[in-house]
Amino acid sequence: MGHLYTPLVLLWAMYGLIAARSARMVVIDTDLFSDVDDVGSLAIANVLHGCNVVNVTGIAINTHSKYGALAASVINTHFGNLDIPVAAIRPLSNHTFFDIYAFRSHGEYAAKLAHNWPRSINDSSMTPTPVSLYRRVLSSAEDNSVTIISLGFLTNLATLMDSHADAISPLMGRFELGKDVISGAGLASLAPSSSPIRAAYEWYVGRCSTLRESWDPITTLYGILGLEPHPELGIGKTFEYANDFGYNWVSPDGSNAWVNDSRVTNQHWLKLTDLTTNTSLAIASPG
Ligand SMILES: *[C@@H]1O[C@H](CO)[C@@H](O)[C@H](O)[C@H]1NC(C)=O
Ligand SMILES: *[C@@H]1O[C@H](CO)[C@@H](O)[C@H](O)[C@H]1NC(C)=O
Ligand SMILES: *[C@@H]1O[C@H](CO)[C@@H](O)[C@H](O)[C@H]1NC(C)=O
Ligand SMILES: *[C@@H]1O[C@H](CO)[C@@H](O)[C@H](O)[C@H]1NC(C)=O
Ligand SMILES: *[C@@H]1O[C@H](CO)[C@@H](O)[C@H](O)[C@H]1NC(C)=O
């Protein structure tokens, strides 16, 4: 996967602009823990949830540190969205992030957010598991009405697909997942002033910078906005399909490659439309 270095600048300024209507339901499955782009994704989702562009019906953490769910709760609390449920994969651990991958300056943020900002979740062990969250959300939703935005590990979704009928849902996991599952994409993010979002970026990126190009925020944006323009937000058509056919082939070692196969037409990769480089997305900093 390459990176998109498109300077999508996020200005945060649109609360209350949107008339109430039934918003698209989204569950975000995130590896919030190491890379800070998940914080950017949850910030975007929280703002758009707050102005009714999307109904974030859950955040599922797919990394084992107990600080993932706590950091997600800090972000939800910061944006005033106490109604967004957070689920955490088990078993929980006490791990904090240390950059043993690059040994550059990438710093820990999840435990710091958990310790320094208010949050509604006291203890990650009180959260539901991701599978129970998914089954509750999906069993009460109409077909094709829930978009799952997958950032990071696919463990939660694999477990859901292997799950069997239970008290929550009479449906088998595989059947329920005839819904959108999205992964991929990138963004340079500018976090706003003294907020947990900005602090997380500063801690992670280091050396007083908050600039971070990444895939997750733009994936989140696509999962919420889709291919349509959003005149109610002052946003034109942002994404379009870049292929007519083919599929993503995932090898057992986890690497992937695009295969040109004219028989497969239901998988796509995205590009930003020409409009997008000039698009400023408004996302307000509430404090
Ligand atoms: C969001 O979806 C949930 C169902 O998961 C529903 O209970 C809630 O009323 C919805 N919220 C809005 C604002 O539509
Ligand atoms: C995490 O730390 C807490 C408090 O020190 C301790 O009670 C708990 O057993 C630890 N959990 C794990 C999985 O090590
Ligand atoms: C969280 O802990 C505080 C202080 O220990 C307590 O007052 C509050 O009720 C707890 N909240 C929940 C949701 O358990
Ligand atoms: C796949 O097809 C596209 C469009 O037909 C072409 O541009 C591209 O080079 C092909 N890629 C491979 C690996 O064959
Ligand atoms: C975007 O900006 C460039 C120059 O900055 C301009 O040439 C182009 O027409 C603009 N595109 C749109 C869609 O506004």
UniProtKB/TrEMBL annotation:
Residues 1-22 form the signal peptide. Transmembrane segments: none annotated. It holds the Pfam family IU_nuc_hydro. Gene3D superfamilies: Ribonucleoside hydrolase-like. Keywords: Signal. Residues 26-167 form the Inosine/uridine-preferring nucleoside hydrolase domain. The keyword Signal applies. One of its GO terms (molecular function) is hydrolase activity, hydrolyzing N-glycosyl compounds. SUPFAM superfamilies: Nucleoside hydrolase. Belongs to the IUNH family. This is Inosine/uridine-preferring nucleoside hydrolase domain-containing protein.
